[in-house]
Amino acid sequence: MRTTILVCALAACLAPGALGDVVNVIHQYNAYYDDPNNPGYPFYEIFPPPSNDVTIFHGVEGQTFEFEAALENNGAYEGPGDIGGIYADADAGTVTISIVGHNGHAYGARDVGTIRISRTGVAGAIEALTISGDLNAQGPTQADGTGALNIGGDVVRYVEITQGILTITVGGVLDGNISCYSLGDVTVVGSPTAVHNGSIDVTSGLYNDDLYIGGSMGPTSQIWLQAGLGPDGSVQVTGDIPGMLRMPYVWSTATIEVGGGVGVCWVEGWFHGALTIGDTARLPTSLFVDWEVGRFATITVTGDLSWAVFEGLFDGTMTVTGTLTYCELHGLSLAGSIQAGAIGTLTDYDAYNGLVDAGSALGSAALYGGLGSNGVLTTTGAIGDVTVFSTLAGTVDAGSLGAMNVPYGDLSGQVFVHQDFDGSIQVGSSTHVRDLTGTLEFAQDFGDAAVEVSGNLGSVFNPGQIKIDGPFGNVPGSLQIHVYGALVNAGSFVAVDYDGYDANHPDRWGEYGQVTIGDVTYTKNTPWALIYEISTCKGDLDGTGAVDFDDIDPFVLALSDPDGYAEALPGLVGSMVFHADCNCDGVVNFDDVGPFIARLSMECDPGCPGDEQMMGAQQLATGMRAHVPAARHPALRAFVTQVIGHHHNRGNQQQRAYWAQVLAGLQ
């Protein structure tokens, strides 16, 4: 059994019948073909086994060489054979080297060893080099020029493309490394279960071309596109990449898709495209993005992500369906969206103005640059410790909250805690006096908890508000609300049971609750100081705990000018519907006027009235004049006129006549 190497210099314009003569010569394994224009000048040499090497000494522009390696047994063709190496040195232009099938068979070689294609001066070219079996080079496979390298089997050892742009197709397993200056499309067909232990290193870039790898990379393999990926380029790996996928520059709308996990996915540049990392269940995955990567990018990770680090601008979106263990953000512009099933640790070094949605839980957050006015940090579950080293101007929205510390900036944003609060919130310190000019809202039990503000509650230009919708002070402990400064701004307040009394869930101010403003401690409803325990009285629109003539003016505001009511009594806005809906139909309208007036002669009652009689029209008019400020008498008369019109439209003549008498008493 032997391997026969056939070589034909087609540019010499051999007649078809002459091919047989050349074949006979080549079987001697040491043959030369002369340039007809330069007699005696060799073009090629073929070496006998075991090397089976083919050397082309000087090809000229337009010269084409075709090789076939036929495996013979007693003169019978049994399939493609091996070529030990192909060595070519071209003088000028394009020299084409291809491996052809024997007598029309599809593949021209089973295996090719070392390939070195070089030239003096400008680059030569491989137009089409097809290997049916393995590329098992003993030394580096080197090629200068453009064209295609098609490998039907495995790449066993090192492949280096020194110049030019080639397209490479590998039908088997990539166990050797591909290193090149630049490449066109690279396709490693593989299979879903294939594992490729080689690496791909492209110096100048797989610019606007595509890289496809079927199967997974090996544990030490990596893909490094040193000059990045062009606007129309793509990378697709159907399996895992345990090593590194690195692209220093990724432009525009390039797409990157990995079916499994990636040990480290490192993306840099101006990436506006889509990065998709598939099932990470088999492989811990990390992500590093740099420069303007993600400016408008979409990043999707199915499963868990060990860590994600953003260096530079990030205005895109990242979605992690599982847990993001660690997330770190640096950059001048951070307005993107980060969403995960849960987040372990969040660290932000610049003011974040985007959305961080931690799904079911956020372990801890350190926001060194603060939280911008458009920034949102949210989870339906628990947030552990949060430290904000600058101003918290955005929104923190959590099921529950551990400790929040804002030591060096103001808390001018909003903090919502939807479940029981047993943690602590501290704004400023003894050495850094800071104000609370935003909103703290606690939806359920304010339990063994503390809020401390080293400065004021509110400022000259902005109010500060603490809303407790659940019970306050029902259990002993370190519970306290302490504002070391003053309550500044008429819109500032502390309100317990802010959303209004509910007989089924009585959220009252308990015996252990204390609110301290400056040196004064409050333990109960104190409306004049803007410290409220929301009244249980229907109709108590001024929060004093009684329904009387002083409630008429705020009731008129609540009904005709809700914004005016909010400005006059901001601490009672949340309970306005409870207090003004005096017929208990769920809305505040003119149908509540009669039941409200009936309240003026009743004891405090959270329920709705029955058929209580209203006071006389003249008595009501006298009380209105006495308890509504004179400046608001025109508005009061306009309101009564509207009540008259309301009853006229309803056809209720008795009520219309009653309110007409009231109006006459107000003239």
Structure report:
The protein has about 675 residues and is mainly β. It is built from 8 helices and 45 strands. The strands form 4 sheets. The chain has a 37-stranded mixed β-sheet that branches. Strands 1, 6, 7 and 9 form a 4-stranded mixed β-sheet that branches. About 50% of the residues are buried.
How much helix is in the residues? 10-25%
Quick check: average pLDDT?
82
Cα(first) to Cα(last) distance is 125 Å
The biggest beta sheet is recorded as: 37 strands, mixed
Number of separate helices: 8
Strand tally is: 45
Q: Compute the CA-based radius of gyration.
A: 41 Å
Q: Indicate the proportion of strand residues.
A: 35-45%
Defining traits:
elongated, 667 residues, 8 helices, disordered N terminus, mainly beta
Which helices and strands appear, and what pairs or packs with what?
Layout: E1 2-9, H1 18-26, E2 34-35, E3 38-42, E4 44-46, E5 53-59, E6 64-73, E7 76-80, E8 82-90, E9 96-99, E10 111-119, E11 128-131, E12 141-143, E13 147-151, E14 159-170, E15 178-188, E16 195-196, E17 200-202, E18 210-213, E19 216-217, E20 222-225, E21 234-237, E22 241-252, E23 255-258, E24 262-271, E25 274-279, E26 286-291, E27 298-302, E28 305-312, E29 317-330, E30 337-348, E31 355-357, E32 361-367, E33 376-388, E34 395-401, E35 403-406, E36 414-417, E37 424-427, E38 439-442, E39 450-453, E40 465-468, E41 480-483, E42 493-496, E43 515-517, E44 520-522, E45 531-533, H2 552-560, H3 562-568, H4 576-580, H5 593-599, H6 617-627, H7 633-650, H8 653-666
Parallel strand pairs: 5-8, 6-9, 8-10, 10-12, 11-13, 12-14, 13-14, 14-15, 15-17, 15-18, 16-19, 17-20, 18-21, 20-22, 21-23, 22-24, 23-25, 24-26, 25-27, 26-28, 27-29, 28-29, 29-30, 30-31, 30-32, 31-33, 32-33, 33-34, 33-35, 34-36, 35-37, 36-38, 37-39, 38-40, 39-41, 40-42, 41-43, 42-45
Antiparallel strand pairs: 1-6, 2-3, 4-5, 6-7, 43-44
Helix pairs in contact: 2-3, 6-8, 7-8
